[in-house]
Design a protein that fits this description.
Shape: elongated
Largest sheet: 2 strands, antiparallel
Strand order of the largest sheet: 1-2
Strand content: under 5%
Distance between the termini: 24 Å
Oligomer: single chain
Order of helices and strands: EEHHHHH
Helix content: 25-40%
Number of helices: 5
Number of strands: 2
Radius of gyration: 19 Å
Number of domains: 2
Amino acid sequence: MNCKNCGAEVGNEYRLCPYCRSELEYPTNNSQPPIIINNVMNNQNTNRNTNINYNHAHRNVISSKSKSTTLLLCLLGFIGLGGLHRFYVGKATSGIIYFLTMGGFLFGTIYDLTKITSDTFTDSNGLPIKK
């Protein structure tokens, strides 16, 4: 099954997409009840995750945020508007810190600029921003 929000291929054992955390919609003609992860009555964890190559299988999943917009907002940190790129990608807490400290006294802005240009900067869901 594929997530309608981010397109990641996920198994039937998930209720939420492990990448974008959106709720998965399963076909209604399935007569099987959903798998219960936690037994609430006696608080025993019944999760038996056997997916060993979890990150390896979904390497091609990328963020829906634009790399060029993120880069432009990051460059605004050099004129005193640090942290706008972090708000854009959903990292509000660090965005506030960057804004109040002028981009981490420019060190944070330079660090993020390096990560954005090398395609290793991620959004709040941990997905790389590459497009």
